[in-house]
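[agent] plan:
  1. take the single chain provided in the ticket
  2. run structure prediction with default settings
  3. attach structure tokens to the ticket
  4. add a short note for the reviewer (M.T.)
[agent] executing step 1
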Amino acid sequence: MMIKGTDSSPFINGSDDNDTIYARELNDWIKAGGGDDWVWAQAGHDVIFAGDGHDIVYAGDGSDTIHAGDGDDLLYSDGSFKAFNPFEVRRVIPHSGESDDRLDAGKGRDTLVAGDGADVLTGGEDGDAFVFRFHDPMVGTTHWYTTVTDFDPKQDRFVMDAGDFGKGDLFGANFINHSKGFPGEFVDTFYNGEAAKAHGQHVVVITDRGFTSGSAAATAIHDEVPGDIIVYHDEKTLGQDGKTHGATLAYVDSANHAHAFAHVDNLHDMSDLTSLTAENFGFI
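[agent] step 2 finished; step 3 output follows
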């Protein structure tokens, strides 16, 4: 069923069928209902309830909140789309304060795609994929990072969208391809351990100490190159209990320099990082 928003009401209600919902370029409240739905929220600060079913939601520009519900869902936090063709996407650098989105996927094996801005992603139950299109997320001229609230090393994955890889730079993505060779495969070289023993691996997880910045972490390892990803505990979030309150993912862009693009709130202890493996890092 095709459903379009109207200027007379900010509320858009779907059905329990498989709906295609086009919202307005205003602040909308969208309740898709059951069924396998496609939702295009467009511009505006929107609240979207996708409901049960295997749904695909494009939040559009603006600061949006998505509640996915049960089912295996695909959630995009932002992006601009040509009418009736959701796969023709261009990167948008929003103005300050825009595109700070919240994605809550609920049950199911979900894919949550972060965009620019200070996004907050919650995968919910079951194994989820947290996809990053840009290693330099920013609002205006200020760097921000995406926050993942519930990453489970036993079943979740970080997925980097590499430019000119797989789908032909579909989203204007700018990660470097460090897969084993094909879209969706794990990272080609991986290290987990003491900083001083890391030598040139493309994903490095540091488990012996924390750092105050990505650049400090990059300086502590050897033979890092642009495109490498470093995972470390952030000493700036050290609490009174003596535990760091999360891990940081940083992208190396030059010698001894890296900048954060994601923060993982629930990996509280240094020991939590020891459970990360190459299978937690993929490229598309």
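[agent] step 4 note for reviewer: The two ends are 32 Å apart (CA to CA).
[agent] ticket updated
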